[in-house]
Design goal:
With about 350 residues, the protein is mainly β. The chain is about 5% helix and about 55% strand.
Length: about 350
C-alpha cells in the first residue's frame, strides 16, 4: 500500500509521472488504502426471510413487508469506525424466488440493526418489477456517513402480487454488494490486527539511466553499483513492511525486487483525534548494480506488497485522520527515469 496509488491510474497519489533519482517522494494516508477501494459482499436472502416455506406449494394474497432483514456484513476485521466523505454503493439484486419483486422495494444499507431513518447510509429503489430469474442493478453515491465495523442490509417495503400453488426452492435470492470508499476523513483501527494490500500495475522503465560521480557516471558491470537512500517518516499508528516486485510480461515471473528483504518501518503515534503526536523517522540504503538495473528496465509490471499491523499498540483501537501519513523519500547517486 506504500506507493500503490502511484502505479494505478484510478487512485489518487502524490507520486505521479516519473521517478527521477536523486530525489523522489510520496505520502500514504488513509485514503491510499486500496483494501477499502474494493469491498465485495454476497448476501443470501432465503425464502424463510419473507415468511415462505420451501419445497411445498404455497399461496398468498400478496406480500407487503416493511423490512426484510437485517443481513449483516463485516466491512473488515480490523476496522472499528470509518467516517466516510464519499462512498460508491453498487450491486445487484438477483431474484431467484418464483414470485416477482415489486417496484418500490428498496435495497437499504444501515449502520445498525435498527430500522429507523437516522441510521440509513444508502438506498437504491427498485424502479420496475424484478421478475423471477431477473436482476436489478444499482450504482449510487453516498456522502458524509459514519460506519462501524459492520453494515446491515435490508429489503425495505418489499412487495409482491398474489400467487397460487408456487413452490419456493432452497436456493436463495442473492444480493451482491460492492462498496468503494472514495475518501474518508477519520478511521479507528483495532489494535493487534494485521492487514495487507497487493496491487499489480503496468510498468515501463526509460532507457536513459546513469550513475553519478560515485561510479564515474556508468554501471558497466555487476561489480559497480549505485546507491538509493530511502527515508521514511511514519506518522501512522501502524508498523509497516513492504516490497516492490518487478514482473515479466506474463505476470508470473518475478524478475527482481527493489529491496533485498522487506522494508520495515516502525509505527508512529496519534492522539484520540487521529492527529500524529509522534513521527517515527528511519532510513535505509539500497544498492543497485547493473544487473538489478537491467532487471528493472526489462520489467513490464510492478507488484506492490505492503502489510500494516497495530500489534503492541495500547487501547482497543488506534485513531487516524487525513493529516497523519507515512512519508517516503528516495535520494542517491543513481539517475533512473521510471515511467508509470
Amino acid at each position: 500500500m506504500l506507493l500503490i496509488a502511484s502505479c494505478n491510474k484510478d487512485k489518487a497519489s502524490n507520486v505521479t509521472g516519473d521517478w527521477l533519482f536523486p530525489i523522489a517522494k510520496g505520502n500514504l494516508s488513509i485514503n491510499s488504502l486500496s483494501q477499502l477501494k474494493n469491498l465485495n459482499y454476497t448476501i443470501n436472502i432465503p425464502a424463510q426471510s419473507i415468511g415462505q416455506p420451501v419445497n411445498i406449494p404455497v399461496s398468498s394474497p400478496g406480500l407487503q413487508l416493511d423490512h426484510v432483514g437485517p443481513f449483516p456484513v463485516e466491512i473488515t476485521d480490523w476496522l472499528h469506525r470509518l467516517d466516510v466523505d464519499t462512498l460508491e454503493f453498487s450491486g445487484s439484486l438477483n431474484n431467484i424466488f418464483p414470485i416477482p419483486i415489486g417496484a418500490g422495494t428498496v435495497v437499504t444499507m444501515r449502520t445498525s440493526r435498527d430500522t429507523g431513518i437516522s441510521n440509513i447510509a444508502g438506498t437504491a429503489v427498485v424502479s420496475s418489477t424484478i421478475l423471477p430469474n431477473q436482476a436489478f442493478s444499482f450504482d449510487i453515491q453516498v456522502n458524509k456517513k459514519t460506519l462501524g465495523d459492520s453494515v446491515y442490509f435490508f429489503l425495505d417495503h418489499f412487495n409482491s402480487p398474489a400467487y397460487n400453488n408456487l413452490v419456493f426452492a432452497t436456493s436463495p435470492t442473492v444480493l451482491k454488494i460492492k462498496l468503494k470508499i472514495i475518501t474518508a476523513s477519520y478511521a479507528e483501527v483495532y489494535t493487534n490486527k494485521t492487514f495487507s494490500s497487493v496491487d499489480t500495475a503496468d510498468f515501463s522503465a526509460g532507457s536513459t539511466d546513469n550513475i553519478g560521480s560515485r561510479t564515474n557516471g556508468t554501471l558497466s558491470d555487476t561489480s559497480t553499483s549505485g546507491i538509493i537512500n530511502v527515508f521514511t517518516d511514519n506518522g501512522l499508528p501502524a508498523n509497516v513492511q513492504g516490497q516492490l516486485y518487478f514482473l515479466d510480461d506474463s505476470k508470473t515471473q518475478v524478475i527482481d525486487s527493489l529491496f533485498v528483504s522487506q522494508l520495515k518501518i516502525g509505527g508512529g503515534l496519534t492522539n484520540s483525534a487521529g492527529t500524529t503526536s509522534f513521527t517515527n523517522s528511519q532510513s535505509t540504503q539500497i544498492t543497485v548494480n547493473r544487473l538489478k538495473l537491467n532487471h528493472i528496465s526489462a520489467a513490464k509490471y510492478v507488484v506492490s506488497h505492503f502489510s500494516f499491523n497495530t500489534i503492541g499498540f495500547t487501547g482497543p483501537y488506534v485513531s487516524v485522520n487525513t493529516s497523519a501519513y507515512l512519508g517516503i523519500q528516495f535520494t542517491g547517486d543513481l539517475n533512473i527515469r521510471i515511467n508509470f
